[in-house]
Amino acid sequence: MINHYRKMCADRNKALGVLRAIVDMWHGIDVDKILRKFKDINLPDYPLEYILYALEWILEQEDINFTGIPQRKQDEIDKILKTLRIETPKGRLGSQLAIALLCDVFLGTHPVEALLKANLDIRPRR
Questions:
Q1: pTM (2 decimals)?
Q2: Strand, helix or coil at 40?
């Protein structure tokens, strides 16, 4: 998420391309096809190829581990995704939160605030 934020600071339009590439991958489009489509994105930090392959595994794991969330939180996630016209693919409710976090940051929420809003901490509270 911090990587995406840095990309946004460098070039918001290209960062939107990164977000769209991530969403394409989340929807099951082949990573190589996505990389060809977004080949002109060159931003700081991790390259798009690394991001897509790493997130592909992470998001799949989130779907496997998903046990549900409160309706209030689901409504917040749905609202964020709707703002950017992003639909959740069937069977991807677990990874939906991660996508919504990236979208929330793109929409202007600071990454730390977005993590806290989602009840996630970089450093767990004791």
A1: 0.91
A2: coil
